[in-house]
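User: Could you go from structure to sequence for me? I need the amino acid at each position, not a summary. Structure tokens:
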């Protein structure tokens, strides 16, 4: 396998996905703090934990979603690496089709999940939490026995989130680059067939031209 025949975008994308998996376990994509150690929320596609008044917990549904995220990132990263090394095989397009979409879906579903959480908070408390930035959240009187309690809520995206966007971009670019690799491979194959059908005397003239074409 020549280096120019590799899909470098898929290779770097696969490596980044596999690196992103352990990073996202230990570092969240989105972080929220409410009050002074009242509520802390760390969210990533593979690890989500909620700390309320010093007690950390993760609902079973969220735990199941995180496990699915781990398996998805792992499968996508490995398959992208395999495809990157053999992009010209007949089944390579199927490998690419499975692998390149997963990081993009992870980023999109992650953002959708945050929006759903915001709408759910608005329905429950009458106020939405900020996706980024700070806001004073006034708790409903029925939850505070008619006392007026306002809590400062601060949230922000963390650097692994942007790393996830880069990984998704590399994988999407790998799909577009595959089209170019396929065209080059088809052209070389047609020229090789034509050369094989050419008389020996003519081959000696055409062969250097074909070699020069393949190098380009």
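Assistant: Here is the amino acid at each position, in order:
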């Amino acid at each position: 396998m020549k280096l120019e025949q590799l899909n470098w975008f898929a290779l770097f994308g696969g490596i980044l996905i596999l690196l992103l998996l352990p990073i996202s376990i230990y570092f969240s994509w989105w972080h929220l703090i409410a009050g002074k150690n009242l509520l802390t929320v760390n969210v990533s596609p593979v690890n989500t934990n909620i700390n309320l008044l010093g007690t950390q917990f993760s609902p079973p549904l969220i735990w199941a979603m995180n496990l699915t995220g781990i398996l998805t990132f792992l499968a996508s990263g490995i398959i992208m690496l395999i495809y990157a090394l053999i992009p010209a095989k007949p089944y390579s397009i199927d490998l690419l089709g499975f692998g390149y979409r997963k990081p993009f879906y992870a980023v999109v579903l992650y953002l959708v999940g945050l929006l759903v959480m915001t709408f759910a908070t608005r329905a429950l408390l009458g106020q939405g939490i900020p996706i980024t930035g700070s806001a004073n959240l006034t708790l409903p009187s029925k939850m505070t026995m008619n006392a007026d309690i306002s809590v400062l809520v601060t949230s922000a995206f963390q650097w692994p989130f942007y790393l996830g966007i880069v990984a998704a971009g590399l994988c999407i670019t790998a799909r577009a680059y595959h089209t170019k690799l396929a065209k080059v491979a088809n052209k070389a194959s047609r020229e090789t067939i034509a050369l094989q059908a050419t008389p020996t005397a003519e081959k000696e003239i055409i062969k250097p031209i074909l070699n020069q074409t393949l190098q380009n």
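One structural detail worth keeping in mind: The two ends are 16 Å apart (CA to CA).
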